[in-house]
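Ticket #4471: structure export looks truncated?
Reporter: QA, pipeline team
Priority: medium

Steps to reproduce: submit the single chain below to the structure queue and open the exported record.
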Amino acid sequence: MAGLITVAVVDDDRMLLDGMRAWLGGVPELRLVATAATVGELLASGSAPPPPDVVLLDLVLRDGSLPADNIRRLLGTGSRVLVISTVPDRTRVIESVRAGADGYLTKDNDLPTLVAAVKDIAAGHGAHSPELAFACAHDTSPTRPRLSPRERQILLDYASGLTLKSAARRAGITVHTAKDYLDRVKAKYRQAGRPAYTKIDLARRVHEDRLDAG
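Actual output as written to the record:
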């Protein structure tokens, strides 16, 4: 079926898995192709190839696996990842995004919110939830550089695909000044141990820090 989004769920709560089957079974645009208690179980289940488009991953699993490792393993198969959790844990939210997760939702969200997030992620967009926006806005990690409003504006415009000249024009400043702001951004990321040399690197930092979420 054209436009059908395949979904897998990794969670060690059997009641939640049963609930997900019932929930997603009523959404014609989504098809639940696999459920598992661990990432290892999912990857060994034969559900791939092809991998599911989106995996709903519980943040903390009883097998003691690290969320960042789970996310990277799933991304390595070609799936996108939506992390789900019982409570918003600010530190772990940020760690999940840094590991490559495309979104974060708490489990008290309703079905329309979940479906919208899955569709956004499958389309290549991040799922911007209030929990994620709050965590990013209050991220005080030393690996997240503190950017001035103008530095952030130039970074977002440039990383989104605009030329430096277009970004400067939009900000009402000269190209020379815009380049100075961009150089400062690169220096701050380099000092934080997360160098960004190219436009692709900068776009990745915008995604990791969810600078476009708020």
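Status: closed, not a bug. The export was complete when the record was re-opened. Leaving a note from the reviewer for reference: The chain is about 50% helix and 15% strand.
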